[in-house]
Amino acid sequence: MRRHTWSTAVTLCFAAALAAAASAPSQARPTAPAASHTVRQQARVPVLVDCFWHADVRPTAFVLACGDGNSRLASMHWSQWGRTAAKARGVNIVNDCKPYCAAGRFHAYRVFVRLDHPKHWKKHPRLQHYTRMTLVYQGARPDTFPRTVTYPLWN
Questions:
Q1: Cα-only R_g, the chain
Q2: Residue ranges per domain, the chain?
Q3: Are 94 and 142 in contact (CB under 8 A)?
Q4: For 39-92, how does the pLDDT look when each residue is reduced to its tens digit (9 = 90+)?
Q5: How many angstroms separate the first and last alpha carbons of the chain?
Q6: Distance CA 88, CA 111 (A)
């Protein structure tokens, strides 16, 4: 009987503590800011929008071929990220798709990356995002690619 009384008392105390915490005013509960809010506060400079519509500043990796992942940037080291342009060095990892993409091999090519042409992002009009990316291959490059390649970036 004594054991039953003790467990009932503990259960009631736990329930009372839980009810008190649940009924606390919302101002008293600490909350983390929403991720998009944090990006907006930090983004006095344009952002880079990825394949999943996430905004990023100075990413170390970026997928260029959203549909199949056959071209991506890795090991990016940014030397500049400003209001009009951003510059980095990195590696473009590209599938040769020989004899077809599923059987192809990935090859790494050193590149300079430049982002520019910032415009307001349709999804978050208070943010600007870079709308153009230029890759300049240093040395080797994919067979059919010119030394400099410019891509429009999505909005």
A1: 25
A2: 35-152
A3: yes
A4: 544 558 999 999 999 999 999 999 999 999 999 999 999 999 999 999 999 999
A5: 69
A6: 8
